[in-house]
Amino acid sequence: MRHPLVATSLGEASPSSPRARAPQSPSESLGLQIPAVPMSARRQAWQFAAALVFFHGSEYVLAAAFHGRRNVTATSLLISKQYVLAMSFAMLEHLTEILIFPEVKEYWFVSNIGLLMVLIGEIIRKLAVVTAGRAFTHVIRIYHEDQHQLITHGVYRFMRHPGYSGFLIWAVGTQVMLCNPVSTVAFTYVLWRFFSKRIPYPAERTSYIPSLMSF
To answer: From CA 84, how far away is CA 90, in angstroms rounded?
Structure first.
């Protein structure tokens, strides 16, 4: 057995030698501690991404199925600049709260309620699209077309604007699912004002059109 001094002189680090210590990360060297991302927060982020992909992808597929692929553009994905900003703000809030208030993301019961809202909103929205068929469009129509007809069966028996209602429930549900208190309030307020202004518009301008299936 070699003497510790001999081993050190030959270039082998002893257990107490600084060379044997694990290297420090940049955050540790600066005295910063980055909290680990909670499992619930990671699950919420994956669910949020899946909800976005499925919603927008299915909107495009259904529009192409009912109106023909040649008549469908990228607008059927329902992604606008305002929408991107809203969802970006939601993700920014989610990440900020993970770093500052990680315990907020641990409310599994609240997150599961949001997930349920996402599913319910998605179902209502898609039932509206499938029931209306070609009468459903992502653009407000102010002129009569042959396929316009008053839809009174299916989900339209229970609500006048299931497309709007489904999207409202879905969008707010995504924020409840993320446990985003600020975005939940903001999404609810903005969407409620948006639909309250949008719904009367076609009703006034298209009183002679027996259909109101836009969006």
So the answer is: 10
- What are 121-139's pLDDT values in tens digits? 999 999 998 888 776 765 6
Three-state SS for 122-159 is HHHHHHHHHHHHHHCECCCCCCCCCCCCCCCCHHHHCC
Alpha helices in the chain (DSSP H): 4-9, 26-29, 39-67, 81-100, 108-132, 162-177, 181-198, 200-205
Please choose, from the candidates 126, 129, 121, 154, the residue with its C-alpha nearest in 3D space to the C-alpha of residue 213.
129
Containing H/E element for 215? none
Per residue in 81-94, pLDDT (tens digit) is 999 999 999 999 99
The whole model's pTM is what?
0.72
- Helix, strand or coil for residue 4? helix
Q: Which of 144, 124, 119, 149 is nearest to 134 (CA)?
A: 149
Query: Is 194:86 a contact under the CB 8 Å cutoff?
Result: no
Residue 123 and residue 55: Cα distance in Å, rounded?
10
User: What is the Cα 33 distance to its own chain's centre?
Assistant: 29
The distance in angstroms from the start CA to the end CA of the chain is: 81
* All structural domains of the chain: 1-34 (no CATH), 38-205 (1.20.120.1630)
What is the C-alpha separation between 51 and 134, in angstroms, rounded? 25
